[in-house]
DNA sequence: GGTATTTGACCTGT
DNA sequence: ACAGGTCAAATACC
């Protein structure tokens, strides 16, 4: 069994995982170096954040790779698959289904055959209107959800194919009288350059950001400045990115006061607020979430970020 | 003709 | 068995 792991004999995904971890290690060292020089961190907090987000992305990628199959099993599957003259994936499937398995399609024709993400990082945002998060999304499905009036919509990053970006999001209109949009992000964007936004929609890295982070672990409010190092930078919203929310270019032609047809539910149109008017204020009593909550102290509208959090040494990594 | 969306099928997890 | 998530053929749009 060990012989499979000799150099040159490693499964490609294992190599990929090792590469991700090695790169992450280098970046972590770089981060450590930068954090050892506080004056450097102060004037270049965005690159510190960028590195942190890259590291998180690497964790995520590695987890995804590791979750896709067991390395210990893989070589066996390969050899068995070869023996049966079929693809390893088909073989896996036939193994799962047993002797009475249905007809096993070729890998390309297998519909709905996928690995559900298990441990990828997620965040959730509830907004009063559809907003642009700066990414281009492609809708790949919609589904009626139990006890929900409105269908849930599924989007993946447009760059999934060309850059292997694994980020996805789900958008669902709530049942409330005044409908809100619950957006759940899964995974990290790996399609952007390091100095650009890497993570979904959380927008608060600006060092001048005075918003607050509520850490439910410690029940303390922390100035975003303090933890902002681990967020990506805020980003100007571009018109074309509204297409990710199912809006046509025509509908996005004006950034002011436009109304979007509702791509999610066929319910009456909901006015889309220009990004500039969507402040991220909210009432704290609305927040009954675990994890880390990020908010600014505005009064218009509401925008909720929910993150899981990882404690890694002295750092609080938000996911 | 290329790209995006729709939608039924099919898979996984509970 | 059921609910939810994803795939991919069909269709729509530019």
Task: Report what the structure shows.
The chain is 26% helix and 19% strand. The protein is globular. Residues 1-9, 69-110 and 193-319 have low confidence and may be disordered. The protein has helices at residues 12-35, 38-43, 45-68, 74-83, 88-97, 160-163, 224-227; strands at 122-127, 137-143, 152-157, 168-173, 181-186, 212-215, 220-223, 259-260, 270-271, 292-295, 303-307, 309-312, 315-318. The longest helix has 24 residues, at 12-35. It is built from 7 helices and 13 strands. The strands form 3 sheets. A 9-stranded antiparallel sheet has the order 2-3-4-5-1-11-10-6-7. It has a two-stranded antiparallel ribbon with strand order 8-9. It has a two-stranded antiparallel sheet with strand order 12-13. The chain has 2 domains: 2-107, no CATH class; 122-318, no CATH class. By secondary structure, it is of the alpha+beta class. It binds a DNA duplex (14 and 14 nucleotides) through strand 2 and strand 3. Its main location: nucleus. InterPro entries: WRKY_dom, WRKY_dom_sf, WRKY_plant. It is found in: Nucleus. This is WRKY domain-containing protein. Pfam families: WRKY (PF03106).
Secondary-structure content class = alpha+beta
Q: What count of structural domains?
A: 2
Radius of gyration: 22 Å
- How far apart, in Å, are the first and last alpha carbons? 36 Å
- SS element count, helices: 7
Helix content: 25-40%
SSE string, helices as H and strands as E: HHHHHEEEHEEEEHEEEEEE
State the shape: globular
Mean pLDDT: 54
InterPro entries: WRKY_dom (IPR003657), WRKY_dom_sf (IPR036576), WRKY_plant (IPR044810)
GO molecular function: DNA-binding transcription factor activity; sequence-specific DNA binding
Subcellular location: Nucleus
Keywords: DNA-binding, Nucleus, Transcription, Transcription regulation
């Amino acid at each position: 069994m060990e012989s499979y792991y000799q150099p040159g004999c490693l499964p490609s995904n294992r190599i990929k995982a090792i590469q991700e971890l090695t790169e992450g290690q280098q970046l972590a060292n770089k981060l450590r170096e930068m954090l050892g020089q506080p004056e450097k961190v102060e004037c270049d907090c965005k690159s510190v954040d960028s590195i942190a987000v890259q590291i998180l992305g690497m964790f995520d990628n590695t987890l995804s790779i590791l979750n896709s199959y067991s390395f210990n099993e893989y070589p066996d599957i390969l050899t068995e698959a070869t023996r049966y003259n079929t693809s390893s994936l088909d073989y896996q499937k036939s193994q799962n289904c047993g002797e009475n398995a249905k007809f096993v399609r070729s890998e390309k024709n297998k519909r709905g055959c996928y690995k559900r993400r298990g441990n990828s990082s997620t965040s959730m945002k509830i907004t009063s209107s559809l907003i642009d998060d700066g990414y281009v999304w492609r809708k790949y499905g919609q589904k009626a959800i139990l006890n929900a009036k409105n269908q849930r919509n599924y989007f993946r990053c447009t760059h999934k194919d060309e850059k292997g970006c694994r980020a996805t999001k789900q958008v669902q209109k709530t049942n409330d009288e005044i409908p809100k949009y619950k957006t759940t992000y899964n995974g990290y964007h790996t399609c952007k350059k390091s100095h650009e936004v890497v993570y979904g929609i959380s927008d608060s890295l600006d060092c001048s950001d005075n918003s607050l982070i509520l850490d439910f672990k410690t029940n303390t409010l922390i100035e975003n400045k303090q933890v902002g190092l681990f967020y990506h930078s805020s980003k100007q919203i571009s018109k074309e990115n509204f297409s990710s929310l199912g809006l046509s270019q025509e509908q996005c032609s004006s950034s002011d006061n436009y109304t979007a047809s509702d791509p999610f539910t066929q319910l009456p149109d909901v006015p889309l607020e220009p990004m500039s008017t969507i402040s991220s204020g909210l009432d704290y009593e609305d927040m009954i979430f675990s994890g880390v909550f990020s908010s600014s102290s505005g009064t218009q509208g509401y925008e909720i970020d929910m993150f899981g959090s990882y404690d890694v040494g002295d750092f609080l990594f938000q996911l």
